[in-house]
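Thread title: Can someone regenerate the structure for this chain?

I was given the following input by a collaborator and told the matching structure tokens would be attached. They weren't. Posting the sequence so someone can regenerate them.
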Amino acid sequence: MPELTYRDAIRAALIEAMERDPTVLLLGEDIGLYQGTFRVTADLLARFGPRRVIDTPISEEGFVGAAIGMALLGLRPVVEVMTWNFSLLAFDQIVNNAAKVRYFSGGQVDVPLVIRGPNGAGVQLSAQHSQSVEVFYAHVPGLRVVAPATPADAWGLLRTALRGRDPVIFLENAALYGTKGPVPEGDGALPFGRAEVARPGRDVTIVAYSRMLLVALEAARQLADEGIDAEVINLRSLRPLDGETLVRSVAKTHRAVVVQEQWKPFGAAAEIAATIYEGAFDLLDAPVERVTGADVPMPYARELELLAIPHEADIVAAARRVLYRGGREAS
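Best answer:
Regenerated them for you:
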């Protein structure tokens, strides 16, 4: 399998789709002449021309609304938001139009729209540019919400998104764009709602998605040095959520730690933990632990930003607690 960066895996999936399907086109701020803030769309304007790679005004509500209209008329637009924080300006378009048109039309009209861009923190962009917004969209019926953690995930999930009938919230992570990994040759499309066992184990299940998967895998390696064999689940998809894989893992390990970069209250980790409780309550030997970001606006200062996001040590400590190895007495 060839090795690609996360950025290049996304770019390759876009190129393949645009070459295969003339209805696929790209819209976003600075994606053409500037070639994208994170260079995902590098050289695509020269390759496909200004009718298919469209530089938009600074108006998320306007160009997301235009993309919804394009999708209703048979095109397959891919919108790049410079950061998912800016999608909040188009929240009404996404939640009240893209997500609901099929329902409103009694199933007669689809919205094959992909909205993609960087989500989350870790690159010193301060409070208004570093929020993790996945829970806002995963709450909404009618949307698909995916969060690739590896180049193979990015390639496979985007290929599925570009062939589907639904609006897809495609959450990348700016801190992942330069990471490298194998990408399968051939189709490689990954179905939504199917998690991956990224590391098999028997003592504790660690559930993560997006960049937190890499943090969880490193924590698992550290736990192995202590004789703790952690199983790591790469969720890939938040809506739909693969509850079956979660329950199957917990049936083996009897303990779970859920990791998210978001603020803790009402976050994705709470929904994931509830899914585990509902499907595997009698199989648990300890309460599910949540490892989350700090409940504060993201600081700009690098030292404070690092304190506000989860790290390997936080996951290791949570795993020890569910195994009653310090910090919690067995009951």
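The chain is about 35% helix and 20% strand.
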